[in-house]
Amino acid sequence: MSCVRVALLFVLLQWPALRAEPVATACGHHDYAPWNWQQGGRIVGTCADIVQRAFASAGVTVRFDYVGPWPRCQALVAAGRVDINICAFRNAEREAYSQFIPLAMGNNEVAAFVRRDAGWALQSWDDLKGRRVGLVNGVSMGGELDQFLQQHTTIDRTNDFSASLRKLALGRVDVVPFGREAGKLAVAHLGLGEQLRDLPTPLLHGQLYISVSKQSHWLLPYLPAVQHYLAAPSYPRQLQDSLSWQHRYYLQANPPPSAPRP
């Protein structure tokens, strides 16, 4: 067989692999609807939806296999065993091991959840001083608020937001800071709406970002296309449509205890 025929045969054998899109792995928070949550063996929600579309526009397929709770997701991204953190607040620790897309993928208002009989109001962070604060392991609300809570409050850590809310209902903590939409959905799902409420003054307006492990060097050339997707004039409407749909979907899949399942 001539050298030309051998070369042609090699190209033909490799053709399907050459045409296939590269595949990246991704993870996210396991309990933060409608942005992201665990369902079966996958992470679903608006963050997964947006990441899938944004990277598809760059020619990359993304897998959202569930790899474990939120702290494990971050550890795997840091180690380069998972390529993408689908949405998170920025802080110095995360910036050390991952590259953030400069444009935020969404805005997330963090609220203070308290008991309905709580006898205090929130005007500023100073109103949190001396209080028992329920936080979830691995959750950050940005470096400034993280540091304030560490210095001025007593922090009680749990493995998931539902556990923190149950402690709040029992009076074991005074306040639980969390994303307002995610918190409201969780309160409804747990049937704690008569016991808990979110204070109207937000703790902060945080921005959620897509980030890529610094170990995943092969993904870096695709990131400008991902940013271009987030910068498109049509993106804000796509984001809101996804949030609305995922909100309804979560409530249908996770109705309050008193609600009949469809």
Automatic annotation (TrEMBL):
Keywords in alphabetical order: Signal
Annotated signal peptide: 1-20
Keyword Signal: yes
Domain Solute-binding protein family 3/N-terminal: 29-120
Gene3D superfamilies on file: Periplasmic binding protein-like II
InterPro entries listed in its UniProt record: Solute-binding_3/MltF_N (IPR001638)
PANTHER family: AMINO ACID ABC TRANSPORTER SUBSTRATE-BINDING PAAT FAMILY PROTEIN, MEMBRANE-BOUND LYTIC MUREIN TRANSGLYCOSYLASE F
Protein's name according to its UniProt entry: Transporter substrate-binding domain-containing protein
Organism: Vogesella aquatica
